[in-house]
Amino acid sequence: MTDLFxxxxxxxxxxxEHADDLDPEVLExxxxxxxxxxxxxxxxxxxxxxxxxxxxxxxxxxARGPTKGGIRFHPAVTRAEVTALALxxxxxxAVVGVPFGGGKGGVAVNPKExxxxxxxxxxxxxxxxxxxxxxxxxxxxxxxxxxxxxxxxWMTDEFAKIVRRHEPGAFTGKPIELGGSVGxxxxxxxxxxxxxKVLEHRLGWEADQVRVAVQGFGNGGQAVARLLAAxxxxxxxxxxxxxxxxRDEGFDVPSLIHMKNESRRLQAVYCEGxxxxxxxxxxxxxxxxxxxxxxxxxxPAALENQITADNAARIxxxxxxxxxxxxxxxxxxxxxxxxGVRVVPDILANAGGVxxxxxxxxxxxxxxxxxxxQVADRLADVMTLAAQDVYDLATTRDIDLRTAAYVHAxxxxxxxxxxxxxxxxxxxx
Length: 429
Known about the structure:
It is built from 15 helices and 14 strands. It has helices spanning 4-16, 24-30, 79-96, 116-130, 149-163, 187-203, 219-230, 253-263, 286-290, 333-338, 346-349, 352-366, 372-397, 401-419, 423-426; strands at residues 35-44, 50-61, 67-73, 101-107, 139-143, 211-215, 234-240, 243-246, 269-272, 275-278, 282-284, 297-300, 319-321, 342-344. The strands form three sheets. It has a seven-stranded mixed sheet with strand order 11-8-7-6-12-13-14. A hairpin with a 2-residue loop joins strand 7 (234-240) and strand 8 (243-246).
């Protein structure tokens, strides 16, 4: 298995070949994270025993502003994974023009095995270990896989105790009552939705003729499925970590969301109010969902490396929208391209989350509270413009969307690095 960070750098270098007049120093800087922290996270369990988990926080690059990125709780968290995610966050912020660099963190733990009190103690313990390295002007964590607003609330509270002051801008994705922003919970999926709407307009799609499959039914997957279904798209398959369901006629997405959030189970239902009835559907695996015939749009919204060289040739969808981070391996990209599959890359498609996190940070630092409509409208403006820029670049240069997104990001990062002086400025002819 290749190192995930090496994969990320490989893509970066391949895309750089298409960038105009990119200073070599930019690539040199982007291949090395600014800071990488590994910590032991002690946790007192409910039975009185002590366990120690491995935690990480990486600041990749701060050329365009303080670093920003989520914290995930997952047993597969590694230094290489967190470093790759931090690099992608640097690119993601640059793609949409948010004045942040990339950061990422995580703890190698299975949160499903923890009680709620153990989860709170783990969250606070992790913040205690990394407190000297984060802050509103340095590095700003947010939710990620298996963390949420409640976890961010605990972390915000613990950080305030450590630094002896109220500093809501040190974390984003917080509960509204602790300085969070409305619209943050569905921002990632909503951003992907806007990217798809730009494609719909350019390609002349008829929404009711488009069949969609969503792998991963957390906040991001739920939001994009709900918004597309409301526009008439037919969501025919969804899945979570336990497996998936398929129904040729499509699902009533609000009913699926209601059942998933109430019971933590993904079941094919139709609900009227609080009364739900089961409907017929086929049980499928996550792998089967990816390879479904006769679907038009595939939305991987789970974890990285779901589409690889092993299964890319069996992907039938003509468009993939990467709501997850890194769901497509580099070896799969040329196979998909050869089969005419259009990939809206993660550094564009899922940038809605960091965009609304930026809005939250701005509100915190200015003592403001924007309305849901203000947040939604500003997000639509940012994501629509970014998608149009990337799609235009792909068309004019005859490159794929992923490469175009990287080139767009590299242009902004290059300008920031050069503004501080590079060899070109200091060298004497």
